[in-house]
Design brief:
Helix content: 10-25%
EC number: 3.2.1.21
Protein name: Beta-glucosidase
CATH superfamily of one domain: Glycoside hydrolase, family 3, N-terminal domain
Pfam families: Fn3-like, Glyco_hydro_3, Glyco_hydro_3_C, PA14
CATH class of one domain: Alpha Beta
Radius of gyration: 28 Å
CATH architecture of one domain: Alpha-Beta Barrel
Shape: globular
Mean pLDDT: 93
Number of helices: 19
CATH topology of one domain: TIM Barrel
Keywords: Glycosidase, Hydrolase, Signal
Distance between the termini: 41 Å
Largest sheet: 7 strands, antiparallel
GO molecular function, one term: beta-glucosidase activity
Strand content: 15-25%
């Protein structure tokens, strides 16, 4: 069996010198080696016997002011991607090509002979965190780091480490966890692994970036310094301390009234003075808002857009508004980092990607990430000898789950759940039936409200011909006038232009639902005038009272049988307009006309979005759902794959599953009690059907091998070992204190929860989650006993660590994996510490009937809090409770540690 994989802050700190030396050795050996005596160079900064600081200082002396500013400014001219610095050939300064990367290398203009612009689509970062395995983070980052080099990039725009405090956040899946300890545990080996490969890691988004709503229009996070230090900058501290982090990306939002990219508190006082960061800070795309303020605060590079550096910075220096010393400071930081990680000395010529090898690692990560949320009566694993027929249901079961927008990776290949189940069916001689059941998710379905759903295609009919959907006519103007620019059938009214649907950010949905067309004269982002008219008919599935509605931004009207029933006009911002109750007859066709104009942009990157929605009688079941239920009824087992669409620039309006997925699950379960639900989401969803189904698996966004990984778990080839890195609320009304739906919140976002983010907030607010942070079931059973806690630790000197030992036993009849989690209770005194906080964990593989002592080491820092007035970590004396268990609410054993002077 493998030894336990554990993480605690003390382990990272204790290994600091060893890890740092090892990383340095790897970096050095990656560089061309010559003896110091044999070095002959034309330019002194190319002498590899010198260290990074020395080489940077020599090169700085040779640079003109214009060249310095050029180094600090992204090149938007012939740039192959939004984040790119061109080489300065006179001095031999190489390009700095930055890979847009979250779950792999996104397609941004590079091409390889065998794989073109594809790369290995890894599981989402949230799925990586669900492994609770730092070694998996190292493996994962090895693939991403290698492919950054193989696609010709010197800097990786990742990983993400934003604490996921808000479950509505559209980018939650791009980050790791709601907990700073787990975040740090995964970020450190990720950064180490990337930078060992001669690629600079760029940790993002600094800081307190937790929602998309208002992100580029002045969103202002209001929080205290203690919360910043203990929660929102914890992973940065760990990566700086233990992985020599090379670069940081500052975020879009303000913090306490000051934009993150020009905040002296964030960039100077915390990042550099307190955390000791020596690398360079670059902006997110368009996140800078000033010249003087930014450079004075410590922003080193403007990327994405050339507005406040470039010519503006050059003029500011020449006019005496900015000291050239500040420019030199930033240039030295950039050059030092580039020299340290071998950017001047390594070869970044694109090379082939090892497709099969990297795909295998993607599969292993996803297998370890998949989380068994519920498993009544041992519904899983499936017994291949007893299963003769399987119904796979869900419109999105034909493609692996993935993030949309800038995080989407065009995969080298992909295996969907349906692909894998059909292959497994051939192996075991079982028939696999497939029914779509509902419609594919889409960028527009992110704005579905909790009480409505997009009108399904199976109840819509176009003007002429056969098939489902409506006839759509697109006009290159705002008022449906003149010649039609394009006519085609659309399955649903899901209009979406801008960032979430832009061809510039190829996304999964392009292969499922054709993107909204952008007619001639419109920019690629979809800005400008455009309108569309949908015509056809609606067929009511049952007799009763219906409500039609429209939601989005822009002007829209809906007619049913030539009666205007919805009018959404004349207002900015997202609207949600409903009809009066409409009495419809089962099977009757009603003429339907919808007109929409994208004339009220939400923000520049979201010019037009509109969704036609409805609510129906309880017995109203669309034809596609009925067909899925029939397939389930005639099968031994039904596997329903449902998912969300999530991505950058937009938050979810609701936590419910879109595209009438809840109804689909209920109807399939009614037809077949042996119904397994697979959730592919970037975090929490509400589950009104949870009590009705025996088993639920969370696959997150599983990458290109998601299907094979799911099949392995479903049939028991692998034990499910994932554990939730975020909490799941029971409903949208049962969130922890301080957390609000971003669509309903103000531009000022108050972090009133303080350090009680995620599960800490649930506990502090006495709110029961649906599934707790750390939750995850196995196919076997485990028990813990014989807790031993080294019960003394000293504030200064003497004992500075404490060991927590527990015996873990596999009491079941098959091999399995468990995560032993150690939590600390409140600190002594009235210091406002969390009711419970994760302090360390160990992931352990155990054979059937085996037992093993697990040791997790804590240190003084785990027993401390940040005192903003004293500007230091303080360790209060007294007794601290120690809990050991399987989640934040499932603690089996308790002990205590006494902290002494």
């Amino acid at each position: 069996m493998k030894s336990p994989i554990q993480y605690s802050r003390s382990r990272a700190m204790g290994a600091r010198v060893v890890v740092g030396a090892a990383a340095a050795a790897l970096i050095i050996t990656a560089l061309p080696t010559t003896s110091a005596a044999a070095v002959v160079v034309d330019d002194p900064w190319m002498d590899t016997s010198l260290n990074g600081d020395q080489r940077a200082a020599l090169l700085l002396q040779a640079m003109t002011l214009e060249e310095k500013v050029e180094l600090m400014t992204g090149d938007q001219g012939e740039a192959p991607a939004a984040f790119y610095n061109a080489p300065i050939e006179r001095l031999g300064i190489p390009e700095l090509s930055m890979a847009d990367a979250t779950a792999g290398i996104a397609a941004r203009g590079w091409l390889l002979p065998e794989t073109a612009d594809t790369a290995t689509a890894m599981p989402a970062n949230l799925a990586l965190a669900a492994t609770w395995d730092p070694q998996r983070a190292r493996d994962y980052a090895g693939v991403v780091g290698d492919e950054a080099r193989q696609t010709g990039h010197e800097l990786l725009l990742g990983p993400n480490s934003d604490p996921t405090r808000n479950p509505f956040w559209g980018r939650q899946a791009e980050s790791a966890s709601e907990d700073p300890e787990l975040n740090s545990a995964m970020v450190v080996p990720f950064v180490q692994s990337v930078q060992e490969r001669g690629v600079i890691a760029n940790l993002k988004h600094y800081a307190a970036y937790t929602q998309e709503t208002f992100r580029g229009t002045g969103q202002n996070v209001i929080t205290d310094e203690r919360t910043l230090r203990e929660v929102h900058t914890a992973a940065y501290e760990a990566a700086i301390r233990d992985a020599d982090l090379g670069s940081v990306m500052c975020a879009f939002n303000k913090v306490n009234g000051v934009y993150a990219c020009e905040s002296p508190l964030l960039l100077d006082e915390i990042l550099r003075q307190q955390l000791g960061f020596e690398g360079f800070v670059l902006t997110d795309f368009g996140a800078s808002h000033s010249t003087e303020g930014s450079i004075e605060a410590g922003l080193d590079m403007e990327t994405g857009l050339d507005i406040f550096y470039g010519d503006a910075l050059l003029a500011a220096v020449q006019e005496g508004r900015v000291s050239e010393d500040l420019v030199d400071r930033s240039v030295l930081r950039i050059l030092r980092t580039m020299f340290t990680f071998g950017i001047f000395d390594n070869d970044y010529t694109p090379t082939a990607i090892p497709v099969a090898e990297n795909g295998a690692i993607a599969r292993e990560v996803e297998e370890d990430a998949i989380t068994l949320l519920k498993n009544d009566d041992q519904a899983l694993p499936l017994n291949a000898e007893e299963v003769d027929s399987i119904a796979v249901i869900g419109a999105d079961a034909t493609i692996p789950g993935a993030l949309g927008g800038s995080a989407y990776v065009l995969p080298t290949y992909e295996v969907s759940l349906l692909d894998a189940m059909r292959a497994r069916g051939r192996e075991i001689g079982a028939e696999v039936r497939y029914e779509q059941g509902n419609d594919p998710v889409h960028g527009a379905t992110m704005i579905e409200p909790a009480d409505m759903t997009a009108i399904p295609s199976s109840v819509l009919r176009p003007e002429r011909g056969i098939g489902d959907g409506l006839t759509a006519r697109y006009f290159p103007n705002a008022d449906w006038s003149g010649a039609v620019g394009l006519t085609r059938n659309e399955g649903q009214v899901l209009y979406d232009t801008g960032f979430t649907a832009s061809p510039a950010f190829a996304n999964l949905i392009a292969f499922q639902t054709p993107p909204t067309p952008i007619l001639a004269g419109l920019s690629p982002a979809g800005t400008g005038d455009q309108s569309v008219r949908y015509t056809g008919s609606l067929v009511a599935p049952s007799t009763g009272s219906y409500t039609l509605g429209g939601t989005g931004w822009g002007d829209a009207r809906v007619w049913l049988d030539d009666q205007l029933v919805v009018e959404m006009v004349g207002q900015d911002g997202r609207q949600d307009v409903r009809s009066a109750p409409l009495e419809l007859q089962a099977g009757q066709e009603y003429s339907l006309r919808v007109e929409y104009s994208q004339n009220h942009p939400l923000v520049p990157l979201q010019p037009g979005t509109f969704l036609l929605e409805w609510s129906t009688p309880e017995d109203s079941v669309p034809p596609s759902v009925r067909e899925a239920a029939q397939a389930a009824e005639s099968s031994d087992v039904a596997v329903v794959y449902v998912r969300t669409y999530e991505g950058e620039e937009r938050d979810r309006v609701s936590l419910k599953l879109p595209q009438n997925a809840d109804q689909l699950i209920r109807e399939v379960r009614a037809a077949n009690p042996n119904t397994i639900v697979v959730l592919a989401s970037g975090g929490a969803v509400t589950m009104p059907w949870l009590d009705q189904v025996p088993s639920v698996l969370q696959s997150y966004y599983g990458g290109q091998e998601e299907g094979n990984a799911l099949a392995s778990i479903l049939f028991g080839d692998e034990d499910p070992s994932g554990h939730l890195p975020v909490s799941y609320p029971q409903s949208e009304d049962q969130l922890p204190p301080g957390v609000l739906n971003p669509w309903l919140d103000d531009i000022d976002v108050e972090f009133t929860e303080g350090v009680n983010v995620g599960y800490r907030g649930y506990l502090a607010g006495n709110v029961d989650p649906l599934f707790a942070f750390g939750h995850g079931l196995s196919y076997t059973d485990f028990s813990m006993d014989r807790l031993r806690v080294g019960n003394n630790i000293r504030v200064t000197g003497g004992d500075d660590t404490v060991d927590v030992r527990v015996r873990l036993s596999n009491t079941g009849d098959r091999d399995g994996t468990e995560v032993v989690q150690v939590y600390l209770g409140p600190l002594p005194g009235n210091v406002g510490s969390p009711p419970l906080k994760l302090a360390g964990f160990a992931k352990v593989d155990l054979g059937a009937g085996d037992r093993q002592q697990v040791r997790i080491t804590l240190d003084r820092r785990d027993f401390s809090y940040w005192d903003a007035e004293a500007n230091e970590w303080v360790v209060p004396t007294g007794q601290v409770a120690v809990y050991v268990g399987r989640s934040a609410v499932d603690v089996e054993l308790a002990g205590a540690v006494r902290v002494r002077n």
